[in-house]
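Working notes for the structural subgroup meeting. M.R. asked for a predicted model of this chain before we commit to crystallization trials. I am recording the input and output together here so anyone reviewing the notebook later can reproduce the run.

Input as submitted:
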Amino acid sequence: PTAWVWSPATRDWSVGVEIDAGVFVGTTVAILTLRSNGRVLALTITPGTGQGIVYYSDDDGTTWAEYSRPTLAAPNATKIRWAEDGLGNILIIAFDETTGDYVQSVSTDSGVTFSTFNTGLAYGTDPSLHAMPNGRLFLSFRFFATGGGFTANTVGWITLDDAFDLVADQTRQILDNGIMSTAESCVDADGL
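Returned structure, recorded in token form:
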């Protein structure tokens, strides 16, 4: 995968930098900047295996080096999202968009190792996971099928107190009534 880094100072994107020299062509990639130290992490997952490689950059994405090789209990994940909570724990939500299953994994050592914390049927796709300024996490998604009391193409969201908050235990808030074909969310600096 190739990484480009946005510079607020120049209001421009950097020249693309190859993260893994093309070793994992066609992988799922997710980028995370650690709130605790500013390190940029890139997680690549080889489809069908759950095998991941985490790369890190301490110079805003100019150079990359291998950091860890976690195996996630989500071998068929098609969407990977991760965020660091206010306690420094990293939450990974891995969705299998063909079944609606998700795996919730947590790292307590800045992304070196991950443990499966929870699995479930989310009926969801198009996940977005964000850290809010108060340290809580915000997860939004679109229900891809009718089930669990939800209508297909309805966009919902939940908030988590930290990475160990069970996704399945949260009350889902609904943003629309079955009219969305895709969804994406973001959280700005003031958390609104």
